[in-house]
Amino acid sequence: MSQKSVQRLPAEQLFQRELDVLIANETNPVPEGWRMSPKSVLTYICGGRCGGMEITPKYIGNRRLVEIAIATLVTDRALLLIGEPGTAKSWLSEHLTAAVNGNSTKVIQGTAGTTEEQIKYSWNYAMLIASGPSKEAMIPSPVYRAMEEGTVARVEEISRCASEVQDALISILSEKRISVPELGIEVPARKGFSVIATANTRDKGVNEMSAALKRRFNIVVLPAPESLEAEMEIVKTRITQLAKGLDLNAKLPENEVVEKVCTIFRELRRGATLDGKQKLKTTSGVLSTAEAISLLAGSMALAGNFGNGVISDYDLAAGLQGAVVKEDSKDQKVWEEYLENIMKRRGSKWLSLYEECKELNR
Question: Are 173 and 143 in contact (CB under 8 A)?
């Protein structure tokens, strides 16, 4: 299967040229099990120049937080990235593993249905019944494989896993080995092994992580973008990258379109206008930066396939309606009040979008 036919390439393939240049021009000490030095990983994540190539920033935010995250992986501590939905936790996790190991695909997606076997190992039951426990009948988990190879495994949305599943990680992170009593063996972790987990602050209380498990992690809290300009920069960067892999048949959104979407999301998220002069009701949804990116991608698809290829207020209104007004009937009222009390009063620049949103909101 060609790369062009794949819907979503892993980071190490999508940015292979940048990774190859960083590795080829490496001049700093490289930790055991890593492909490049911590400084080169930082350049890959935050952007810069290397070997005459411009390295695109993958994470736009506090550079010091990225340094702390990378430094954690150099030690024997695991890394926990915490933040609101849409603060690029999974995105940063993927790119860290891509830069460190060249393989970001050792992933466990945490859900209510995640089991302890998915953290450790399971069995091919046909082989198990036919010939009993053996290495060949074992199905190693991503964490198991990462320990064997001395690489980094990712655990997404760890707070959505049941407590007994979370606790399975405690011994792994403490002892740095997995016991397989059926075979009478223990698998020790090779140097370079680590775990990057992510947790959503909106899921706090679903399956609260124990103090014992938290102690096994260095915790980095990823904040929402501090300013409108910073959020717009993130959105424009990501939508440009997304558009390259999708057949949207539309032009990239103009700066004014991105500004409108980010303004609406920030105001409804914080419960006040950007100038702080007027308080607003907030919606049940988070309206994260990631949702703004998805909204614009959807608007591009509408414009490219049913319009003239340029995002119009008609296209934008459809995306906004779906993003803001979800299941909660309260959101409908919040959105109506925002349209009448804020958007309508912002003058001619916003009038067309107001009218299209008002029509859809009937």
Answer: no
